Amino acid sequence: MAELIMRHYIVKDHDCEPCRETGETLRNLGSQMARRLAPLGVELKLQEAEMAEATEENLLRANQVTFSCPESEMAEIALEDILGLQVSHDSVEGDACTGCRTLIFEGRRFQKLPPGLLTDGLVRAAFSILEGGDGSGCGSCGGG
Questions:
Q1: Domains along the sequence of the chain with CATH
Q2: pTM surpassing 0.85?
Q3: Are strands 42-51 and 77-78 parallel, antiparallel or unpaired?
């Protein structure tokens, strides 16, 4: 069974609402999709990658979601790369986070990553594994 790792980057002791809500969405999505992917030979694992220090580089990476599969040629690839999305960093109203990772999809800006975008990326990553790809997408799916 191929192991598909869905990783969520967070910063230790950095409490950010979009990060919390994206984490919750990922946990729910992971439990739902693991059951669906198992019969296809894909074992879904969710990892929270906690970065120890709140450096500028780590804060810019906070709330990033990536996918990888050690058993295939699929190196770690970010959700925005699979889906061809732009990344920005915007402030969060009422939050100490001054540069929260923001994905831009069809003109809409998302800090709290919605289930639809996460599911789209997850399904593309899973099918890439099943097809023996590297997760970078294909011309027909628009993922790369």
A1: 2-130 (3.40.30)
A2: yes
A3: unpaired
* Cβ-contact 82, 76 below 8 angstroms: no
pLDDT per residue as tens digits for the range 34-50: 999 999 999 999 999 99
Tokens 């003109």 belong to 107
Q: What number of H helices and E strands is found in the chain?
A: 4, 7
In one-letter notation, the amino acid at residue 111 is Q
Is 65 in contact with 124 (CB distance < 8 Å)? no
Residue 42 φ/ψ, nearest 5 degrees: -120, 120
Q: Residue 43's CB: how many other CB atoms inside 10 A?
A: 15
Token digits of residue 117: 């975008």
What are the beta bridge partners of residue 105?
108
